[in-house]
Design brief:
The chain is α+β, with helices and mostly antiparallel strands and 405 residues long. The protein folds into three domains: 235 residues, 3-Layer(bba) Sandwich (FAD/NAD(P)-binding domain), CATH 3.50.50; 82 residues, Elongation Factor Tu (Ef-tu), domain 3 (Beta Barrel), CATH 2.40.30.10; 58 residues, Helicase, Ruva Protein, domain 3, CATH 1.10.8. It contains 13 helices and 22 strands. Helix 1 packs parallel to helix 6, helix 1 runs parallel beside helix 13 and helix 10 crosses helix 12. 41% of the residues are buried.
C-alpha cells in the first residue's frame, strides 16, 4: 500500500486512539496529531477525580449499549470491533493494569490518570506519530479527494485522510466548521451536570454522601439509583449525574427549573418499612429516635430528615405514634427538593448533541457526506451516563476510525 499522510484533529482520548489505530493497521502511513491547546488528554487527566475511569465492566455488548441515551444500539457495530474487554487488554498489555470497583467502573491499579497519559503518549512516540500542540484547525478545504487543513498559526498542509476528534461544544457555533462540510448538527445541550438548589436548607449538610439512594424527576419517567453527594450548591454524585444524562434535553427545555423526589433508603415497600419502624418502637420504647438511626444514614442527615418530618429530637420511640411513623416514611422515601439551575465543570463537559449519526457509517466511522473524513468521540451525537462509558465510546470509535475502512 502506498504510504499516505493522515491527520488527526483533536488531542483527546479518541484522537490518540485514532492515531494509534492508524499505525497499527497501516504502519507505513505518516500520522500527525493536532491539538489546538497546549494540553493533551485533558479530560483523561481529570476523569474520576484524577484517577481516570477508563471504561466500565459489562458482560455483553447489549448491556454496554444500554448506557448511552444518545448512540445506543448504533454503537453496537464498533463495540463488536473493539469492546470494553479489548480496552482492558490493550492497556494491560502496555503496562497499565486495571481494577474493577463495586459499581463496575474500571480504573488503573495505580489510581493515577498519569499512568494512562504516559502510556498513550509513549505509544505514539514509539510508533513515530508526530504530535503538535497549539495547532488549531480553522477549516478544511477539499482538493481532489484530499484535504487541505488551514491552521490558526501555520501554513496549510494537505492530507489524504482526516479523522476529526475535537469533542463536544457547549454552543452550536463550535460546530460551524463541521456544518460547512455538509453535516447536520443535533443542537448541543449539556449532559452530566450537578443540580443547584439555592433555596434548599439541605445544602448546609455539604459533604455528606449516601450510598444507596434513588431519585425521580417530577413530570418524567426518569428514575435513577446510586450514591448521592450533598454539596454546598445542591446535589451531585452518580445518581444525579445519571439523571442529568438521561434527561439532558428535557431538563434543558425546563431551563433547569424542576422538582426531584429522593428515596434516601432506596426502598419502596412502605408497609414493610412501617412494620420495621413499628417493631423497633415496640422493642425499644424508651430510646430516643434521634439517637437510633436504624437505616444507617449519616447522623446529620438523619437529624435533618427527622426535623423535616416534624419528629422532635428528644422524642422517644413510644411517643411517636403511627401517624408520625407514616410521615417519617414519606420523608425517607419521597423527599422533595426544588432544583434551580445546574453546575457543569468546564473540564468535564459532556455534550448531548453533535453530528447526526445518520450521516456516519458506523461500521467504519466514515462520513457519508464527505470523502476521506472520519469522526470519533463526543463530536458525534453520542454520550453516556457516568461510569467510564464516554471514554469507551472514544476508545472504540477511535480504533475503528483508525482502520480507515
Amino acid at each position: 500500500m502506498i504510504p499516505k499522510q493522515i491527520a488527526i484533529v483533536g488531542g483527546g482520548a479518541a484522537g490518540f486512539f485514532s492515531a494509534l489505530s492508524v499505525k497499527e493497521h497501516h504502519p507505513n502511513h505518516k500520522v500527525f496529531l493536532f491539538e489546538k491547546t497546549s494540553k493533551l488528554l485533558s479530560k483523561v487527566k481529570i476523569s474520576g477525580g484524577g484517577r481516570c475511569n477508563i471504561t466500565h465492566y459489562s458482560e455483553d455488548i447489549n448491556s454496554l449499549c444500554d448506557a448511552y441515551p444518545r448512540g445506543g444500539k448504533k454503537l453496537k457495530s464498533i463495540f463488536y470491533q473493539f469492546s470494553n474487554i479489548d480496552t482492558q487488554n490493550w492497556f494491560e498489555n502496555r503496562g497499565v493494569p486495571l481494577k474493577t470497583e463495586y459499581d463496575g467502573r474500571m480504573f488503573p491499579v495505580s489510581d493515577q490518570s498519569e499512568s494512562v497519559i504516559k502510556c498513550l503518549i509513549s505509544e505514539c512516540e514509539r510508533l513515530g506519530i508526530e504530535i503538535q500542540v497549539n495547532h488549531g484547525v480553522n477549516s478544511l478545504e477539499n482538493t481532489s479527494d484530499k484535504w487541505k487543513l488551514h491552521f490558526s498559526n501555520s501554513k496549510p498542509i494537505i492530507f489524504d485522510s482526516v479523522i476529526i476528534t475535537t469533542g463536544g461544544s457547549p454552543k452550536s457555533k463550535g460546530f460551524d466548521w463541521i456544518s460547512n462540510l455538509g453535516h447536520n448538527i443535533i443542537f448541543p445541550v449539556p449532559s452530566l451536570f450537578t443540580f443547584n438548589m439555592p433555596n434548599e436548607l439541605i445544602t448546609k449538610l455539604m459533604g455528606i454522601a449516601v450510598e444507596n439512594t434513588s431519585i425521580k424527576i417530577e413530570g418524567s419517567k426518569i428514575k435513577t439509583q446510586g450514591s448521592l453527594l450533598i454539596t454546598h450548591w445542591g446535589m451531585s454524585g452518580p445518581v444525579i449525574l445519571k439523571a442529568s444524562s438521561l434527561g439532558a434535553r428535557l431538563l434543558s427545555e425546563k431551563n433547569y427549573q424542576f422538582e426531584i423526589f429522593i428515596n434516601w433508603i432506596d426502598e419502596t415497600n412502605t408497609e414493610l418499612l412501617f412494620q420495621k419502624l413499628n417493631d423497633f418502637a415496640n422493642s425499644h420504647p424508651s430510646k430516643l429516635i434521634s439517637r437510633n438511626n436504624i437505616f444507617s444514614l449519616p447522623n446529620r442527615l438523619w437529624s435533618f430528615l427527622l426535623e423535616k418530618a416534624e419528629v422532635s429530637h428528644d422524642q422517644k420511640w413510644n411517643e411517636i405514634g403511627k401517624k408520625s411513623i407514616r410521615k417519617l416514611i414519606e420523608t425517607l422515601t419521597q423527599d422533595n427538593y426544588e432544583v434551580s439551575g445546574k453546575t457543569t465543570f468546564k473540564e468535564e463537559f459532556v455534550t448531548c448533541g453533535g453530528i447526526n449519526l445518520d450521516e456516519i457509517d458506523m461500521q467504519n466511522m466514515k462520513s457519508k457526506v464527505s470523502s476521506n473524513i472520519y469522526f470519533a468521540g463526543e463530536i458525534l451525537n453520542i454520550d453516556a451516563i457516568t461510569g467510564g462509558y464516554n471514554f469507551q465510546a472514544a476508545w472504540s470509535g477511535g480504533y475503528v476510525a483508525g482502520k480507515l475502512g
